[in-house]
Design goal:
heterodimer; A: 244 residues; alpha/beta; Rossmann fold; globular; B: 442 residues; UDP-N-acetylmuramoyl-L-alanine:D-glutamate ligase; Protein-Tyrosine Phosphatase, Chain A; nine-stranded mixed β-sheet
Chain lengths: 244, 442
């Protein structure tokens, strides 16, 4: 099966090792027997999502996210259609902010979002950083990661992480985090969230393959990925228990 | 009265701290509690030189101090590296008399880049060196642009800025400013035509986001840049290094003075350049600077040698969460001609705070270790599996790297095989865990 992945703005929106999400997903799909091609498109470049299986946009600086929101706005109608059509997508870090109704920077300047979600994001001058240990309804293992944002997102109806034991969510500490619509996941958790969370990697690959009608069982993730998650999960869980 | 009490408390706290081997922040913290505006009430030297930036602060400050002292000036600086307002307050009050007069010709400050605006609320440097702004400790700093904005608040109109003209972001501080001087490095034989590394922060203009072009790149995105949109470009440099030969370990400053490098790293070159620019701006003769920095061996202990079984070893301290620091050390290892092995240790991400964040590993160009003389790479520490995942996406033959959760186990594996040079790349947080297993040389 030939799978087409699209990586939007691979240099502009590439903080915290975001690109690793595409690398690890691509390799995992290859272990599933797929032939994978990765297309990249810079902000403002013409792009057709027809026939695409997955789209990724990574974390950028807040200024870059505002710039990207403007430059990518011609693509927004296609993004909405693809989301309604069940295409798998991942928006990491500040990329999530492009999916709502609007994005307002710290000076008050507002740009329109893709309106896939009914939420609005506002950037502030206060940075929120810290490890995150949370849970999603999509799979059993805890989701681990790191939050590095200076924003508040109001109005998310379906979050990605429904419960946080540790860390900050959309509207503050302990609140639900991220956004989900079908097979589209957005999370402010920075960096290589698919590397750190093999269960999410498998879920995402499963969503891509299911949309193409493939129903075979997914192969295991590499041992290092599972062990890496286990170490971080243990470290964060112990930290959380200490704080309780 | 509060001023007097703050000075006394700080001096006493410093004495006690030194006696018990404690850090240099607490006395200043106490003084600031007693008198929050104490830094506006002291009489500071006429010359205040501050150094900030992501990388190279400590080394640059050390060399500036050495040069100024060689020039006969009385210099005080925060040698222990406590570079936020508390540490700076300790430095100042420790060297002040009870009336608050600081006895020195030059106050030299290594300043944390993110909190510099806080430190310089009540006074400002006469000369402010900004070495560079790279991805560094993103878990606390956010990203370089966030730090850039935070630093803007620390820059006073009266201050002369000394900026790295080869860095697209930190050179922005000088746009439209009169009191600014730039340092930079001319073309080198190892330059590339395009930015290198695992990510490309120099792909787009930091001013307008249009694509950038490069005449040459020394490393990562540092070089002669030009924006295709707004025209932001590498400025003409006031202090320039040329004829850099990293193999022979020498370069020429301002076309006149040849300097020999004790440590053949481009990182060190930029630190020397920054120190040279600061000292020249402070009125030191070029010859005096050259005499001091020539073959200068840094005393900050970031490079240590040891023996491990039949192996001679060199530990290169690389700050975790700082990909350019790692890249620079990996590039140094890649330059070595003799067969060698490498150990990378990530056991505790930070010595100052807890985190399990390892995304920065994906910012490091570990492909630099794909070199024929590098025989084996040992990945060690608690986060060895994260390292393993990262290495699985390099071009290194998997047979040439191994994973060791236990640092002692990695050390044993090294001892059990061969007698080649071993380079260890790790952070302050982890280096003693390895050095404790070795015979230290220096």
């Amino acid at each position: 099966m030939e799978i087409r992945l699209i990586h939007l703005c691979p240099d502009l929106m590439n903080l915290y090792g975001s690109y690793a999400n595409v690398r690890v997903l691509s390799r995992y799909l290859e272990t599933c027997g797929c032939t994978v091609t990765v297309e990249t498109a810079a902000a403002g470049e013409a792009l057709s999502l027809a026939g695409a299986d997955f789209l990724f946009l990574g974390a950028g600086t807040e200024d870059a996210a505002v710039y990207a929101a403007g430059a990518l706005s011609p693509l927004f109608p296609q993004l909405r259609s693809a989301a309604e059509d069940g295409m798998a997508m991942l928006f990491a870090g500040t990329a999530m902010d492009l999916l709502g109704g609007s994005l307002t920077d710290e000076t008050g300047k507002t740009v329109a979002g893709a309106e896939i979600g009914a939420f609005n994001t506002t950037y502030t001058t206060r940075r929120i950083t810290g490890d995150v240990y949370g849970h999603t309804d999509l799979f059993a293992p805890a989701v681990v990661g790191f939050m590095n944002k200076c924003s508040r997102t109001e109005g998310v109806d379906v979050p990605f992480l429904t419960a946080l034991d540790m860390g900050a969510g959309n509207t503050g500490p302990g609140t639900p985090e991220g956004f989900r619509r079908g097979s589209l996941i957005a999370s402010q958790l920075t960096g290589p969230i698919l590397v750190k969370n093999p269960a999410l990697l498998q879920w995402m690959a499963g969503a891509i393959l299911a949309r193409r009608g493939a129903e075979a069982a997914l192969p295991p993730v590499p041992e290092a990925a599972q062990k890496g998650w286990a170490v971080t999960e243990e470290q964060l869980r112990l930290r959380w228990q200490e704080r309780k | 009265m509060r001023k007097f009490l703050a000075i006394v408390a700080c001096k006493l706290g410093r004495l006690v701290g030194r006696a018990v081997g404690k850090g240099s922040s607490l006395p200043g913290k106490v003084a600031l509690k007693i008198c929050p505006d104490i830094l506006s009430r002291v009489k500071l030297p006429q010359h205040i030189i501050a150094v900030t930036g992501s990388n190279g602060k400590t080394s640059t400050v050390e060399m500036i101090a050495a040069v100024l002292r060689a020039d006969g000036r009385r210099v005080i600086y925060n040698q222990e590296g406590s570079n936020q307002i508390e540490g700076v307050t300790t430095l100042i009050l420790t060297h002040a008399d009870l009336r608050g007069r600081v006895g020195a010709d030059v106050l030299l400050i290594e300043s944390d880049e993110r909190y510099a605006a806080h430190t310089f609320r009540y006074f400002h440097p006469t000369v402010f060196v900004i070495t560079n702004l790279y991805r560094d400790q993103l878990t606390r700093n956010g990203h370089p642009r966030w730090v850039y904005k935070a630093l803007l608040g620390a820059i006073h109109d009266d201050t002369t800025l000394i900026l790295n003209g080869d860095d697209p972001l930190s050179s922005c501080f000088g746009r439209g400013r009169e009191k600014v001087r730039y340092f930079g490095l001319g073309p080198c034989d190892f330059d590339t035509a395009e930015p290198t590394g695992a990510y490309h922060d120099g792909k787009y203009c930091p001013v307008c986001y249009a694509p950038m072009t490069y005449d040459y790149v020394h490393f990562n995105h540092i070089g002669a840049f030009r924006c295709t949109g707004c025209g932001h470009h590498k400025p003409a440099t006031d202090y320039t290094a040329t004829a850099l030969d990293l193999k022979e370990g020498r370069m020429t400053l301002d076309g006149k003075t040849e300097i020999h490098l004790a440590f053949s790293s481009i990182y060190h070159v930029y630190n020397i350049l920054a120190a040279y620019a600061a000292c020249r701006t402070a009125g030191v003769a070029a010859d005096t600077v050259a005499r001091t920095v020539d073959r200068y061996v840094l005393k900050n202990g970031r490079m240590q040698t040891f023996r491990l079984g039949r192996h001679h070893g060199t530990l290169l301290t690389s700050k975790h969460e700082n990909s350019i620091a790692y890249d620079t050390n990996l590039r140094y290892i890649r330059q070595s001609a003799a067969p060698c092995s490498v150990m990378v240790i990530v056991d505790a991400v930070s010595r100052k705070y807890f985190t399990s964040e390892t995304s920065w590993l994906w910012d490091i160009d570990f492909d630099l270790l794909c070199a024929p003389q590098i025989q084996h790479v040992y990945l060690a520490g608690r986060y060895c599996n994260d390292l393993s995942q990262r290495f699985s996406f390099t071009a290194l033959d998997p047979a040439r790297w191994s994973v060791h959760p236990d640092i002692a186990g990695a050390a044993e594996a090294v001892k059990a095989s061969g007698e080649e040079e071993v380079y260890v790349v790790t952070c302050f947080s982890d280096r003693e865990k390895l050095l404790a297993l070795t015979e230290k040389e220096g």
